[in-house]
Amino acid sequence: MLRAEGLKVDIYPGAFERGHGDFGTIWGPFMHHTGSFGETPRGIAQHSSLGLASQLHLAPNGVVTLCGVGVAWHAAPARGRASPRTTATP
Fold it and tell me: What's the domain of life for this entry (predicted)?
């Protein structure tokens, strides 16, 4: 889907085997700490305490790297108009 929209996409090694289980109801995308100065796909895919921190890494140059396909328990409670109030971090 990302490539179909014209984005340059890389796949981090092991991405299709990485995550904290299957998703339940999916209500929308969430990207956290991706694109921040100095962050790397490895830092997102293999975070020292979180494991998978986000499914995607967004580089400052616009390259999207798929880091994992499972749940990434890292986001704080959602509080947007369109998002349900939920805790994404166990």
Answer: Bacteria
Looking at residue 37, its amino acid is F
**Host domain of residue 69:** 1-90
Three-state SS at 51: strand
Please report, in tens digits, the pLDDT of each residue of the chain (90 residues total). Answer: 889 999 999 999 999 998 888 877 776 666 665 556 788 999 989 988 888 888 888 888 889 999 998 888 765 555 555 555 555 554
- Amino acid of residue 58: L
Total-model pTM: 0.74
The total domain count for the chain is 1
